[in-house]
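Aim 2 progress update. The chain analyzed this quarter is reproduced below.
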Amino acid sequence: MGQGNIVGKGKAAYLVRALRLPFLSASVLPFVFGSMIGFPHVKVFCVTFGLAMVAFTHLSANLMNDYADSKYGVDWQDMRFYGFFGGSKLIQEKVFSQQFYLKMSILFFLCSALCAALLTIYWRTPIVPVCYGIGIFLAWAYSHKPLLLSYRALGEAVIFIAFGPALVMGGYFLQTGIFPSAKSFLLSVPMGLLVAAILFANEVPDYAADIKVGKRTLVALTGPAKAYIGYYALVFFAFFFIIVNIAAGHLRIFSFFALACILLAYKAGRILKAHYNDKLKLVESSRLTIVLHTTVSIVLILAVIL
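Predicted C-alpha cells:
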C-alpha cells in the first residue's frame, strides 16, 4: 500500500501507529506528576507549554527511533507488527517511507523547540534551553549514529534519565523555579525505573533481531531466559523508592495504594520467565508493564494533589 492510497480512517490509524500515541503516557504522566508536586500553586502557562514540549519531543523521538531501526536493519528482521515492541513496521509494510519518518521527526522537534523557546522567555534562565538541549541530544543519540546508545546496553540508563529525573524535575522547576531539587529527584526515581522496565520487557521479544544486527541491550547481557530477574529488580527498586519517599514525607500515605500494582509486575515477570521465546505471549507482559506504569503514576499524582 502506498502513501497516496491511505485515506480516511485508515490514514488516521496509520498515523497513530507511526507516532505510537498510546506510549505518550510514559512521558506525559511523569511531567504532570512533577508539575503537581507544587499543587495548588500551578502555573497554567508552564503546564500547557511544558506538556506540549514534552509530547512533541517524545513523538519526535518515537519517529526517529523507527527511522533509525529501519535504517540500521533491526526492524527488517521480523516483519510482523506486535503493537508494543519491534517498531511500527509501517516502513516495512511500505505505508510510509523512511524519509517520511525523518521529516515528521524534524517537524515535531521544531514544535517542541518553539515551546522550549517560549518557556525560556518566561523564566529568563539558561536552565530551560540547556536541559532541553540535553534531552534532544539523548533522544537523537539513543537511536542514531555515532553514539547509538540503545545499541550499547545504555538504553535503560537513557530512558531512566529522560522519563524520570528530566521530566519530573523539569515539571517541578517550571512550577517553582527550583533546580536542582533533591526532593523532586527522589520523587522521579520510581517513574524512571518503571519506564525503564517497559523498555526492558520490550527487549526480551526483540532479543533475536537485536543480536542479528549487533544491537547489544541489557537483555543481550542477561540472556532472555534470565531477563525476568532484571525486570523484577527494576520494579522492586521502583516500589522501594515509593516507600522511601513516603518515609521522607514527600508522598502521603495514600501512595501506599500504588504498592497494590505489584501484582501486575509479578504477572508480567512470570510471563517473561515462562515464555521468553514466544513473542505473541510476550505482548501481554509488555502491556501489563505499561498498565503498571500508568496506574502507579496516576496514584502518585492523586497522592500529591489530595
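Confidence is low (pLDDT under 50) at residues 1-7. The CA atoms of residues 112 and 225 lie 40 Å apart. These observations will guide the mutagenesis experiments scheduled for the next reporting period.
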